[in-house]
Amino acid sequence: MEVNAEDLAGSEAEDEQLAGFAETITFPLGSDPTQLDLLIGELADLASQYTDTATPIPSISHILEARGVKDPQADVVRASFKTLCELNAAGRNHIWGYVVRNQIRPLWLARNPVDVLVGNPPWVAYRYMTRTMQSQFKAMLESRGLWAGGAVATNQDLAALFIARTVEVFLKPGGTFGFVTPYAVLSRLQYELFRTGDWLDADPVHINAAFETSWDLADVRPPLFPVPSAVVFGTRAGEAVALPEKVIAFRGRVGHIIREEDTVIQLSVDDEYLSPYSSRPIQGATVVPRVLTFVDEVPAGKLGRPAGTTAVKSARSAQEKKPWKFLDSVETPVEETFVREVLLGSSIVPFRAVWPHKAVLPISDSGVLQPAQLVLYPLLSARWAIVEGLWNANKSARTKQSLTEWLDYQGKLRRQLPAPAHRIAYTASGNRIAAAYTSNSKYVIEHKLYWLPVDSEAEGHYLAAILNSDAVAIAVAKRQSRGLFGTRDIDMLPWRLPIPAYDADNATHEALSGLGASAAATAELLDLTDVPDFRAARRVVRDALAADGTTAAIDELVIGLLDLNPSGSVILLGDEKRDGDEDDELELTA
Q1: How far apart are CA 82 and CA 25, in angstroms?
Q2: Of the four, 73, 185, 526, 565, which is 20 to 30 A from 516 by CA?
Q3: Extended beta strands in 86-228, E state
Q4: Does pTM top 0.85 for this prediction?
Q5: Which strand (E) or helix (H) includes residue 251?
Q6: DSSP-derived secondary structure for 128-164
Q7: Is the Cβ–Cβ distance between 288 and 253 less than 8 Å?
Q8: Can you tell me the distance from the alpha carbon of 572 to that of 347, in angstroms, rounded to the nearest whole number?
């Protein structure tokens, strides 16, 4: 083992501390890991007492004799002990005994593979690894055909590689395994290749897993882990057997657990989007950091203000993150036309847009203003110079875009200009969908929402009725990823259902449109003034629609239209507890 090997955690300080120790620590592996473990522990303890290089290295003959270590292995151990002593005298022996023992155990196990592997592997997503670890992780997955890449690359997790690698190295052919995993292993795209069981196909080594029925532990309360969990079982086999969709689901509180069979829908890159609407949805623009764009209007003084202008001050929020929360607010006048209403995830309740926020954005109905156009608007130009300066001074070193370019990342702002006359907006995440039709073309839609243009108000009410239905909530929930507070990402999942294009001559479509319009009218009349937050507002709307029979009528039509299985229930843990805008202040990397 190299004492000055590269630190996989990426600590330059640690690398510098180890510089100058080019030695290696070497121990004979032997056939008895227990004796070797005891030997290293005793040597490490003794080395920890050596602090002065002017004194002789202590004798370890009595330890070698007690552990049955004889020449030539004894000479190797003495040399390694000398290195441990020198490391300790230099103040660097705080970990080497531990590290060596943890290197030796898997080496011994690899030479003595077992019949059964049971464990809880490390759960570390790619996005949380250091760059060195990311490079090695990706290379190992690619060599085994397990790298999914693409949009799910950052979600790939060390747990899957750990399982495949330990089965490869430590398990006998025909041996069985059981591992605790993130719940996402059962269904999400990033684990699709892992679920095939075809883990390594490179002569002369072929590693296949024959999966058996898994355990779903996501609904055990209190949660067993910080994220929902599962357990996968299988055998190291000659032929791969994919992970079954049928699982044993454990639900309820510890002490009152219900065990039942369930089906998990496993997403694949080959899954079809069954709805013709699947090409229309667009994610909203990433309007962050908010302190630079979101504003509150300042009341006019006694003398008023010039026509067509207003005064604004940075809107502040408890969700602001470093470094933006430490910035002073910016208060300036600005031309009124550049104060736009922005819909966030928290702005949508079923069938209604509520509580839009205000932001100063350099846009017109014809597009995003270029620098040469900004000078035509002196108040906006002056304000933008201030916030652009704050952006440049505080953005991540990896972010090269100007503030305007950042706001229009991937064209998500300009694609809304000019806005269509009829739009549907729906939540990008949460325990269930909240959707609303709007004809307000002045709204700017933010990234916590998806939006899609529709041809008419009738089509908008038709889609809103479908997306807000309990039947679709159940169908989508089976395809959603799971978080600590229940189902979360919605994104494009609704369009994997066979939602047909609106047809005004279809009686079911017309009936759903009428029910959607009626639901929108009911939602609009509800007084939400004293409702504490958007979660409570959504419950108020849903309760009202359930009470007047609208929900049941919509569900009956949607189940028939989409040929859905109506069984199941939508469990709302705090009703969209994770939905909304708690994490809108994204890390500033493009």
Answers
A1: 9
A2: 565
A3: 114-119, 171-182, 198-202, 205-211, 214-221
A4: no
A5: strand 246-253
A6: GS-HHHHHHHHHHHHHTT----GGGGGG-BHHHHHHH
A7: no
A8: 19
- Alpha-carbon distance of 153 to 363, in angstroms, equals 33
* C-alpha dist (Å) from residue 239 to 140, 200, 201, 209, 242: 21, 11, 11, 7, 10
Q: Provide φ and ψ at 20, rounded to 5°.
A: 100, -15
And the tokens for 119?
């464990």
Decide if 258 contacts 512 (C-beta within 8 A).
Answer: no
Task: State how far the alpha carbon of 114 is from the alpha carbons of 106, 208, 508, 536, in Å.
Answer: 12, 16, 61, 54
Report residue 236 as tokens: 């190291």
CA 432 to chain centre: 17
C-beta separation of 97 from 159 below 8 A: no
pLDDT band at 484 (very low <50, low <70, confident <90, very high): low
- Greatest Cα pair distance, the chain, in angstroms, is 98
Cα separation, 72 vs 562, in Å, equals 76
236-282 pLDDT tens trace? 999 999 999 999 999 999 888 999 998 888 888 777 888 999 999 99
Average pLDDT over residues 13-19: 39
Structure token pair of residue 42: 């005793």
Q: Look up tokens 């994997």; give the residue.
A: 496
Compute CA distances 138 → 145, 146, 269, whole Å: 10, 9, 19
Question: Three-state SS for 548?
Answer: coil
Question: Which of 100, 117, 115, 71 has its CA nearest to residue 3?
Answer: 100
Rounded Cα–Cα distance for residues 278 and 215 (Å): 32
Task: State how far the Cα of 474 lies from the Cα of 559, in Å rounded to an integer.
Answer: 11
Which of 501, 491, 479, 496 is closest to 273 using CA atoms? 496
Are the C-beta atoms of 558 and 471 separated by less than 8 Å?
yes
Q: Report the b/e string of 487-496 with b at 16+ CB within 10 A.
A: bbbbbebbbb
495 DSSP 8-state letter: G
Going 217 to 218 to 223 to 228, the CA torsion angle's sign is positive
Distances (CA, A) of 25 to 76, 246, 580: 9, 49, 53
Q: Which residue has the higher pLDDT, 488 or 371?
A: 371
Length of the chain as a residue count: 590
Residue pair 330/383 in contact by the 8 Å Cβ criterion: yes
Mean pLDDT computed over every residue of the chain: 87
Q: In angstroms, rounded to a whole number, what is the distance separating the alpha carbons of residues 149 and 248?
A: 30
Q: Over the stretch 110-158, which tens digit does the pLDDT of each residue have?
A: 888 999 999 999 999 998 998 889 999 999 999 888 998 887 888 899 9
Q: Where are the alpha helices (DSSP H) in 412-533?
A: 457-468, 470-477, 507-525
Which pair of tokens denotes residue 227?
């994220």
pLDDT for 273: 84
Exposed/middle/buried for 287, CB within 10 Å: 0-12, 13-18, 19+?
buried
Q: Are strands 294-298 and 357-360 parallel, antiparallel or unpaired?
A: antiparallel
Q: Running DSSP on this structure, what letter comes out for residue 226?
A: S
Among 412, 566, 428, which Cα is nearest to 493's?
428
Predicted confidence band at 588 (pLDDT cuts at 50, 70, 90)? very low
Tokens standing for residue 421? 């006359």
> Could you tell me which residues come within 8 angstroms of residue 17 by beta carbon, excluding any fewer than 6 positions away?
92
The three-class DSSP label of residue 70 is: coil
